[in-house]
Amino acid sequence: MVVLLSFHEFAHAWMAYKCGDDTARMMGRMTVNPVVHIDPVGTIFIPLAMLLLSPSFVVFGWAKPVPVNPSNLSNRKRDDILISMAGPAMNIILAFVLMFLLRISVELSPSISNSEIVKQLHLIAKISLFLCFFNLIPIPPLDGSHVMRHVVGMSEEMYYSIAKWGFLILILILNFFPIVGQVVVFFSETVLYFMYKLLLFP
Known about the structure:
Elements: H1 2-18, H2 23-26, H3 34-37, H4 40-53, H5 76-105, H6 110-113, H7 116-135, H8 143-152, H9 156-163, H10 166-176, H11 179-198
């Protein structure tokens, strides 16, 4: 999970750099090194606390957000959407790469195809897709909310006032309206199945 989140945040930083903002790069965030992306609260404390206090609750976490200076962007609306969608896009790319590696491994010797790491590739790809669609939920500060903000014309002030409570709102919605999590899982499994078919697994 930490590695997948690191690639996710790297994609945000890389896209911001391509859009003209080098804030994340200058702060050392344009990297896949997990250490620089770990949020002590969101990556460690909250997931552990939720798991220990109530194992029946949906457990999730987040990495340290990538800093972006909107004043450096040439087209704030377009570039904000591109930067936001870079993370979920990276998760889809990672899932496809993992499934491609799994497809290759099944053609190799049993000592490789039956190894424990190969058996986990399917699960890791599914988690990557889950992160993709989870981040598309239009609740601030998740990635999908940036697109939603521009679609409905929400002001930055209103957006960030909601974002302060965003993760609390998200915890309540996921645990008391399980249909949201079920939709995320449905799309994750559907795309994973499509990758199976595309790669022609035996």
